[in-house]
Design brief:
The complex is a heterodimer of chains A (105) and B (411). Helix content of chain A is 0%, strand content 46%. Chain A has 105 residues and is mostly beta strands. By secondary structure, chain B is of the alpha/beta class. Chain B is built from 9 helices and 28 strands. In chain B, the strands form 8 sheets. Chain B has a 5-stranded parallel sheet. In chain B, helix 1 runs parallel beside helix 8. The radius of gyration of chain B is 22 Å and the shape is globular. Chain B starts with 5 loop residues before the first strand and ends with a strand. Classes of the chains: A mainly beta (105), B alpha/beta (411). Chains A and B meet through loops of A and strand 22 and helix 9 of B.
Chain lengths: 105, 411
């Protein structure tokens, strides 16, 4: 199964204001990095915080609980509390609609 | 080029982890011998008072250096071996089993022990919390208790109290000082903590000292200085940490509430560093501070490892110290070293259950305590790093996005 799912409108995402969405049971954060959207799992692998409630700047987001920093375009863990990388998802915009593709987990 | 030096780390916590990581990241190819006096691989302590008590969080989630990182580091790992003496002249240390191990550089990262009540014999109903085994024992004891008595209204005491309340136990906290966490936060934050715990049904007794503890088969009873008597099934003693500085002291190094070091962890012996909970480090302003935090352990370890390798390091350039505590559904973070002489500006956003206390001097924000506002910490950290702040009266407006407030240089 790999289908595109509509998750929101383009104007709901700004560079410093990511959008947190839920598809099935998967929580996903949508980020605007220099005009391009990226989607990454929203739950910090360290202590289950929602990363979209953290601080987003450029391609980085910082976990609001314990300061782990991730690159949302690649999912890579960059600094802070060591934990695994984030899973990322394909994202596209059709008209104003943001769609992401969840591959089978 | 082959590296023949041998670096030895004593202590397998957060500080030890960052020593090992930083030495290897900066190219140290010699031998790293790492001693831990517990049988476990190095693990995280922060969850011990939280997830380990409340949930069935297994040990594997606590491991500090999972594979393949652990193998990459090529550590000569010595679990369950206590270092009992240092011979500084011979640059050799001795373990409890009598083995002698030579070092070219020695890092003391051996933390401390939970402080106990003087004169109180060990008892199954009187527990402290420092290790994973302590946490498992405490979890079981809380499970079997109706009324949990927590002696000490500091961070560990409050986190244990919150975990026990979430497990629906009756909880009383007894603190000798007139307010909670008095050693680390100003009065407004203490008041917030008191409000939170009271709202969750914890009975908090302040300004009352323990006169006598009677621990029996059926219950434990506290007799307080005020004359009050409390009966519970379990007493958790959370009255602070004693730095494990006796190893350094016996080797003739200066100790005073921890091993005395400079800002980069150097002791008076150029071959010995001390970092983390065990180190009482000098600060740029001439004072000394022994900080018991996860972040400080990391920071001092990185500074010491780099310094030992001859790489210049300005520890204070990393910004003010940072600390967090998770209690109930609240995440509290503290940035900087606030004190009661500073002006307090409070910002509340009830919809997010968030509350910030800014501690200010003149135009500067010196420190901040943030409840459920982790995102804003990053903004404050930037203000402090750039020594540029918004107009302080703008901070109270809940509609203002802190990140978008215009700032101007305080210099």
């Amino acid at each position: 199964m790999s289908d595109w799912t509509a998750v929101g409108q383009r104007d709901q995402v700004e560079p410093d204001a990511p959008l947190g969405v839920t598809v099935g049971t998967q929580k996903i954060g949508i980020y605007d990095v220099d005009g391009t959207l990226h989607a990454a799992e929203d739950i910090c692998p360290h202590a289950a915080a929602l990363l979209t409630q953290g601080f987003a700047e450029g391609c980085e987001v910082e976990c609001p609980l314990h300061n782990a920093v991730f690159d949302v375009s690649t999912g890579k863990h960059l600094r802070g509390e060591p934990c695994r990388d984030l899973k990322t998802f394909p994202v596209r915009v059709l008209g104003q609609e943001i769609q992401i593709r969840i591959t089978a987990v | 080029m082959s590296e023949s030096r041998s670096f030895v780390i004593v202590g397998a916590g957060q500080a030890g982890r960052w020593l090992a990581l930083t030495l290897r990241e900066n190219g140290f190819a010699g031998r790293i011998v790492w001693f831990g006096d517990e049988a476990h691989v190095p693990y995280e302590r922060p969850p011990l008072s939280k997830a380990v008590l409340k949930e069935n969080q297994g040990f594997e989630r606590l491991v500090l250096l999972p594979e393949p990182k652990w193998s990459e580091l090529a550590i000569d790992w010595r679990p369950g071996q206590r270092v009992v003496a240092i011979d500084r002249a011979a640059r050799t240390l001795r373990t409890a089993s009598g083995e002698a191990v030579a070092y070219d550089m020695l890092f003391l990262a051996n933390g401390g022990r939970a402080r106990t009540l003087p004169g109180l014999a060990p008892h199954a109903r009187v527990l402290t919390l420092r290790t994973y085994e302590d946490a498992l024992e405490l979890k079981q004891a809380i499970g079997a208790a109706r009324h949990v008595l927590v002696l000490g209204g500091g961070w560990i005491g409050l986190e244990v109290a919150a975990s026990a309340r979430l497990l629906e136990r009756e909880v009383s906290v007894i603190e000798a000082a007139p307010r909670l966490c008095m050693r680390t936060v100003p009065a407004c934050v203490s008041a917030h903590l008191l409000e939170t715990h009271t709202a969750h049904g914890v009975r908090v007794l302040l300004g009352d000292a323990v006169r006598e503890v009677v621990a029996g088969d059926e219950r434990v009873t506290l007799h307080l200085a005020s004359g009050a008597r409390l009966d519970g099934d379990l007493l958790v003693v959370g009255i602070g940490l004693v730095a494990a500085d006796e190893l350094a002291a016996a080797a003739g190094l200066a100790v005073a509430n921890g091993v005395l070091t400079d800002a980069c962890g150097r002791t008076a012996d150029p071959a010995i560093f001390a970092v983390g909970d065990v180190a009482n480090a000098a600060r740029a302003n001439g004072t000394r501070l022994r900080i018991e935090s996860w972040e400080n352990a990391q920071r001092q370890a990185v500074a010491a490892a780099r310094t030992a390798l001859g790489i210049a390091h300005d520890n204070e350039a990393d910004g003010p110290p940072w600390f967090w505590s998770d209690q109930y559904d609240d995440n509290l973070q503290l940035l900087g070293l606030p004190d009661d002489s500073m002006q307090v500006i409070e910002r509340q956003i009830p919809a997010k259950r968030s509350r910030l206390f800014f501690f200010c001097e003149g135009p500067r924000v010196r420190a901040v305590a943030a409840v459920n506002a982790g995102r804003d910490m990053r903004v404050v950290r930037r203000w402090i790093a750039q020594d540029s702040y918004p107009a302080l009266d703008a901070l109270v407006d809940p509609a203002a996005d802190l990140n978008k407030l215009p700032v101007s240089s305080a210099g």
